[in-house]
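Case study: Glutathione synthetase.
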Amino acid sequence: MTQLNPLTVAMQMDPMEGIKIGGDSTFHIMLAAQARGHRLYHYLAPDLTFRDGRVLAKARPVNVQKVQGDHFAFGPEEMLDLGRDVDVVWMRQDPPFDLSYITATHLLERVQAETLVVNDPASVRNAPEKLFVLDYARFMPPTMITRDLAEVKSFLAQHGEIVVKPLYGNGGVAVFHVGKNGANLSSLVELFKASWVEPFMVQAFIPGVAEGDKRIVLVDGEVAGAVNRIPGAGEIRSNLAVGGSAAKTQLTDKEREICAAMGPELKARGLLFVGIDVIGGEWLTEINVTSPTGIVSIDAFDGTDTGGMIWDAIDARLAARAAA
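Here is what the predicted structure looks like once written out:
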């Protein structure tokens, strides 16, 4: 679709009622879009329909404002053709990265020739955060993906302390630290195997996590900023969703090296908004492409406008498509 000014933007995301506007990156992006005069629509992933060769969404126009509890207002429901009626579709619902999520990527991939989908749905599908990161294993702590208890015990014996986490989890949920004595390790592996059919991730524990887990945001392959997330008392998890606190930070030389190594690949894949996690200034642990967060804190600490940077990148993408 030829770029319009203003743009029509469809947000595939979670329910507006549950958005915590103080730190929600999707809401931040919506505010930035609205400030530019773009028309916003909201719909949920289950509202997608494929019919007569078209991908449709039962959506509602939405206006947003920074007033918690009165932060959105819906207009009457409409049936949008996501290829013909919309300039940009944002895929911003939170995981789990399950078959429902994967199905949504397949449906949105069908409108890519007409409408810009952010992030690129095929690339999101092919880059789950804890697997895509293996392409950059040279920057990672020792890592194993397995369902085998004997392998986990061997890994623990080799590295002393480990972290066990689900392969397709998010928000720091079900992340466990196992100490040198391996207490409850067998039970933990049994729990993971009963809860998930896929393997799980095991990594050597990095003591530097006590000083924080840095979220670095890249926009179309370029660093937009970073925020350090510090674990709460008695926690190893630094995710803000589980009680971590945010602190201003700067990038280390190693972190800049990591970003420079992956930036061109992110841009080539159409992964326009990405958040990577780095511990101790040097250890890459995840590449978040589904629904990364952190830009509210980054802008608050650094006085930047990451939302504006994101929309500038989208404008550039649309201009390139129109010229092709």
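For the exam, be able to explain this: The radius of gyration is 20 Å.
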